[in-house]
Amino acid sequence: MKKEVIFDLKDINSKRDLIKDLHEPLALQVHEGSSFENWDAFDDDFCSFNFEYVTGEKPTEVNLILTNWLKFESRFPDFASTLLSILAKNTDPSQRIDGINFTFQIRL
After folding, report:
1. Phi first, then psi: what are they for 61, rounded to 5°?
2. pTM, entire model
3. Domain extents in the chain
4. What is the pLDDT of residues 51-104, one digit of tens each?
5. CA distance 73 to 85
6. Strand partners of residue 20
7. Rounded CA gap, 1 and 62, in Å?
8. How far apart are the first and last CA of the chain?
């Protein structure tokens, strides 16, 4: 089963917004006391989606589509760079704990 997640970056105003708002649509585990401010914790969480616990189904593929990238990147170039690094790393199957084939697209 393939799952497509569309995430609009237009209303992101902080690193906390970005990390927190990506957790729900990607079924990322929220750890107790998580501040949603830590890139390392987000990177660790990102290697394992938990759709089977949220929806009861585990997709074999997840495609994340990020929209309004240019506005986001112009406002937060450091966040954009870090996010791209995490996303690119997770397209490598050896980096994934969950066995899901992860891809992403950027829509300007």
Report:
1. -135, 140
2. 0.93
3. 2-106
4. 998 889 999 999 999 999 999 999 999 999 999 999 999 999 999 999 999 999
5. 13
6. none
7. 9
8. 27
